Amino acid sequence: MTRGARLAAWLYGIAALTYLLDRVTKLWAERVLATRPPMQILTGVLQLNYTTNSGGAFSIGGSAPWVFAGASVVVIAFIVVASFRIARPAFAVALGLVLGGALGNLTDRVVHGPGLSGRVVDFIDLHVWPVFNIADSAIVLGAAILLLSTLAGRDRGGPDGRRPGEEPRWPGAGPAGVEEDG
Cβ–Cβ contacts within 10 Å for residue 22, how many? Predict the structure, then answer.
């Protein structure tokens, strides 16, 4: 198995686990939390509070859920296209988290409304932040890993750690460690 295929397997494995965890927790929240008052976990810090959101982060854009659904489709397509060309394990982990989270929230939009205009289930309430879910957490964590990995890669050269003009570290690697077909 090539390095690119191994990293793609990691990406899809992490995406599948993220998606599964998101779906299971949202189904639980719908069945248990939707019919009761918020469940206090750590008083004043964390409660589980069922709510839904038609918009994006912080409930922004609630009147245009199709924008967020469309953005999710574009992100998912980009990750799938790029999945076998990833050069660094951190990118595989990050993109797996983003893919799993995007699929989780997109599933909510399909299941909870006509077309892609449904509402996303949220239930984690930290009191100082809008209510969110596992998918939202995965997307934010994945984006943070991507940012930090990119910044760390710049210190060492490119995303794969090579400096300009340096030879690839494995056969088939092209510019910046992206595997080339051939």
Answer: 24
